[in-house]
Specification:
The chain has 484 residues and is mainly alpha-helical. The chain has one domain. The chain is built from 20 helices and six strands. A two-stranded parallel ribbon has the order 1-4. Strands 2-3 form a two-stranded antiparallel ribbon. A hairpin with a 4-residue loop joins strand 2 and strand 3. The radius of gyration is 27 Å and the shape is flat. One of its GO terms (cellular component) is membrane. It is found in: Membrane. It is a multi-pass membrane protein. Belongs to the TDE1 family.
Length: 484
């Protein structure tokens, strides 16, 4: 009887899998808005796909799969009579698996983007595709990813590598536009509070954050010279560090010029310091993709060198020979170690934070320059709160998630899904460390196109920071009807 009651209780949640996000969260989340809850769920789905991809890159996964009877060819099937494995478990590990999982996510998000073109409010029938049918959407995404494992090797991996590189570059550019806009908005907000409240607290906070950002940038540049250059050689790294540092200095000086202050009264050093710090990160990210390991040491070896400085070689002389005693960094032989180096882990951690923020916050239609969603959501809520409360009363029960998009959407559904499409490609390239795929694991190596993609994005970042023209593209990217 208890089992029957449990099944009945579980079946009561089945309609929620086919309805809106409000049903999924009405019993476990506090009072919130449908537009925010939906984006949170999509961000969690993307994060779940990232976790699955990370698991498939973990060492020993193929050995564990071979222990499942009847799954892998040449695995545990031989110990079970009448069961034969026909699955090549090598397809479930390494960059091949990451490419296929991210293929399923990216294709699904691209399909959602095309299906939600020009959705103006939640009363549009297509809005239900975006806000509901979660079971079918997730099941479809899993089915596409599973079907991708049956795609034969060869052109697929090479073509998808090119698509991933282009999509990841586009995602970096979108992130840069949003970062520049966020930096200007942050500076404008704090300057307004400093002027209106006539308090030195905001001035101290503004000055402290600015000094901290510049200090971190200087420390980063010094560390780059110390560990990513050599007295003779590594000239390209020297050029990247010096050129980007000079560009950041010029951008900072230009931001406080009188003529710039006349045209952009809120322009200041805060946004310049943020752009400078992010440019240093992009410079470091580009140098970590160089094929030459002499100019691209692992982050773990850098930490070891900082903790225990390398001693000079010790010469032990005797009557017959001179023996040089030194230390040499071991070369990893496992194909998985080249994915799970420290650079990839740090880059993935930073990327996860960025993708969660951009996926949830970057698509506001009228508060793009503030990237907060709070003001516009409040305005729409005031317009629709009466009708919403009436609907709650008529439904016979409290609803903790409000539909605040009955009159107009709070963000572009089309652009939001397109952002997730590009983000899936960026995840794929980040987890595989932008390696160019080859048939043999030993041939996996970084390539120069990844270096130039990242370093050129830093130059675009600085040009967007000082040029008001590209900032005009932000409303075009994020208006609700941008995909008409």
């Amino acid at each position: 009887m208890g089992a029957v009651l449990g099944v009945c209780s579980l079946s009561s949640w089945v309609p929620c899998l086919c309805s809106g996000a409000s049903c999924l969260t009405c019993r476990c989340c506090p009072h919130s808005k449908n537009s925010i809850v939906t984006r949170v769920i999509y961000a969690l789905v993307l994060l779940l796909g990232t976790v699955v991809s990370c698991v498939m890159l973990s060492p020993g996964v193929d050995q564990q799969l071979r222990k499942i009877p009847g799954l892998c060819s040449g695995g545990a099937a031989s110990a079970v009579a009448g069961i034969s494995g026909h699955v090549n478990c090598e397809m479930f590990v390494g960059y091949k698996a990451v490419y296929r999982v991210c293929f399923g996510m990216s294709v699904s998000f691209l399909a959602f983007s095309l299906l939600t073109v020009n959705v103006k409010n939640s009363r549009d029938p297509r809005a239900a595709i975006h806000n509901g049918f979660w079971f079918f959407k997730i099941a479809g995404m899993v089915a596409v990813s599973a079907g991708a494992f049956y795609i034969p090797e060869g052109p697929f991996t090479r073509v998808w590598f090119v698509v991933g590189t282009c999509g990841a570059f586009c995602f970096i550019l979108i992130q840069l536009v949003l970062l520049v806009d966020f930096a200007h908005s942050w500076n404008e907000s704090w300057v307004d509070r400093m002027e209106n409240e006539d308090s030195r607290t905001w001035y101290a906070a503004l000055l402290s954050v600015t000094v901290l950002n510049y200090a971190l940038s200087l420390i980063a540049a010094a560390l780059f010279y110390a560990f990513y250059t050599r007295p003779e050689g590594c000239r390209l790294n020297k050029f990247f560090i010096t050129f980007n540092a000079l560009l950041c200095a010029v951008a900072s000086v230009v931001s406080v010029l009188p003529r710039v202050q006349e045209s952009q009264a809120k322009s200041g050093l805060l946004q310049s310091s943020i752009i400078t710090l992010y440019t240093m990160f992009l410079t470091w990210s580009a140098m970590t993709n160089e094929p030459d390991r002499t100019c691209n040491p692992s982050l773990l070896s850098i930490f070891q060198q900082m903790a225990v400085p390398t001693a000079p070689p010790l010469e032990v002389e005797n009557q017959t020979a001179v023996i040089i005693v030194g230390t040499e960094e071991p070369v990893p032989t496992s194909p998985y170690l080249q994915w799970w180096d420290a650079q990839s882990i740090v880059g993935l951690a930073i990327f996860v934070l960025c993708i969660l923020y951009s996926s949830i916050r970057s698509s506001n239609k009228s508060q793009v320059n503030k990237l907060t969603l709070s003001s516009n959501d409040a305005a729409v809520l005031e317009e629709t709160s009466v009708g919403t409360l009436e609907d709650v009363t008529e439904s016979g029960g409290p609803r903790r998630v409000e539909d605040n998009e009955r009159e107009t959407v709070q963000y572009s559904y089309c652009f939001f899904h397109f952002m997730l499409f590009l983000a899936s490609l960026y995840i794929m390239m980040t987890l595989t460390n932008w390696y160019s795929p080859d048939a043999e694991y030993s041939a996996m190596s970084s390539k120069w196109p990844a270096v130039w993609v990242k370093i050129s994005s830093s130059w675009v970042c600085l040009s967007l920071h000082r040029s008001p023209g590209p900032l005009c593209l932000v409303p075009c990217l994020t208006m609700p009807y941008d995909c008409q």
